[in-house]
Amino acid sequence: MSLNSFAAEPTIQQQRVSLILKAFNNRPENLIRPLVESDIHMGPAGGRVDVNDKAKFSYYIHIAEANDMKSAITLIPMATSRFTPTYYQTDAWWDAHKTELEDAKLKGLPAPKQDMDEVMQWLQEMKLSTNPDVIEINGANGQVRYSKLQTYLLDFYLSKLAKNDKIILFRGAEKPDEISSWQKGVTPRGARYWTPTANYAWRYARKNTKFLDELLANKTPLFKFEIPVTQFKLMVDRKWQQLTLGTELTKKVHDSFDRTGNFQDQLQNNDPYLGEGHFGVEFELRANRQGSADMANFYKGAITIEDLVNDRVSVIERTQERLIKQNSTAKEKYDLLFSQRVERVKQEGMILIALQENYTPETVQLLLSQLIQRSPELVNIDGTDFNSWVRKNIELKAKTGLKATSITEQIQDLKKRLYRKSIPILCEGLF
């Protein structure tokens, strides 16, 4: 008998690494060097391919069903919308111009930019563009399909995200008073990025320490835009793209993967990172100057508390479905985790609406006391202790006109607005 017959069969992970290597190296024109096994980092149900360390360019690995070797593998390029000479500057240029950049920022002046021809030459040498391949591998037979990122994502937006013949986008504002520009029909200076989920836009808006106060005042620093599908396609498809589609993961999420092999959310006690939901990676859009100016035509106002709740719940539920499909043996764990997260989101939403609409202090206090004790969701705002903020607002509301209905009626009203299914009233039997 041959000695080779005693060799261990390759694991599922090893077989997937082999398929991924072959898929990349079959297109050497897209690489600065052939990839090797150490470039591929696999976690339990996904991972990352480090394609170009010099440019910090990587791919997100999505495995549809982790324990099935025949499962589809989707490889999605990340953070590519930056790879354009009108926007990008190389690390070497940044290091050489730190003083000028910091000085311009302090003085509120336009930042200096690297010569576009120089950037273009570097991007070409590094084989970088805003439209690399998305790679789909059939685990059953090893067949590979290559699609351009802009085509793949546009199809995804139109098939998965379009509602009533419109694409809904969001923008989270870190800078104060961005809303006043939008209300005047003018795009604020420097506004370049949008996202199809309020959840991802919230991660930027939450850096505004007045987020919750502005939310109650209907001036949330998180804005909604509705683009007709036909117009959206034109903005993406034209030769000089007004909207460049892309994906992203934060540095902290990458760091968590490097430490643990899992993409984790530091804002949620290292729970699985939600991403867009269908995938554990965020979707984003970068506008050029004309595209950014045109976005003022599609502005629909600051989002409401109910908008924020519904969006977060949708992303959580899509993530729950994705993770259970990837690992059905963990269904019970994920059902518990995500049901708690959904409940916490809705509880926070009820408190926020109760404060906004002058419900009685007793109602707000009761809702606050019944919050699930886990990481905050919508109310996890930089520099804000939610409980203290609520109590401060209770004191303020006590001095104004209040809803004159009973606590039970007030909570029932809130539940009708935020719960899809009828759930027993929290305070029944307590009064």
Give a description of the structure.
The protein has 431 residues and is of the alpha+beta class. It contains 16 helices and 14 strands. It has a domain at 314-418. The strands form 4 sheets. A 6-stranded antiparallel β-sheet has the order 1-2-3-4-5-6. Strands 7-9-14 form a 3-stranded antiparallel β-sheet. A hairpin with a 4-residue loop joins strand 2 and strand 3 (57-63). Helix 13 runs antiparallel to helix 14 and helix 14 packs antiparallel against helix 15 (386-397). Mean pLDDT is 92; it is low at 422-431.
* Approximate helicity band: 40-55%
Structural class: alpha+beta
Largest sheet descriptor: 6 strands, antiparallel
In the sheet with the most strands, the strands line up as 1-2-3-4-5-6
DSSP strand count: 14
- Unreliable stretches: 422-431
What is the straight-line distance between the termini?
A: 81 Å
What is the compact description of this entry?
By secondary structure, this protein is an alpha+beta fold.
Question: What's the structural blueprint in terms of helices and strands?
Answer:
Blueprint: H1 12-25, E1 40-42, E2 46-52, E3 57-63, E4 73-77, H2 91-96, H3 98-107, H4 116-125, E5 133-137, E6 144-148, H5 149-161, E7 166-172, H6 178-183, E8 193-194, H7 198-205, H8 211-216, E9 222-228, H9 229-237, E10 243-248, H10 251-260, E11 264-265, E12 271-272, E13 282-287, H11 289-294, E14 299-302, H12 305-326, H13 331-356, H14 361-369, H15 386-397, H16 407-418
Antiparallel strand pairs: 1-2, 2-3, 3-4, 4-5, 5-6, 7-9, 8-13, 9-14, 10-13, 11-12
Helix pairs in contact: 12-13, 13-14, 13-16, 14-15
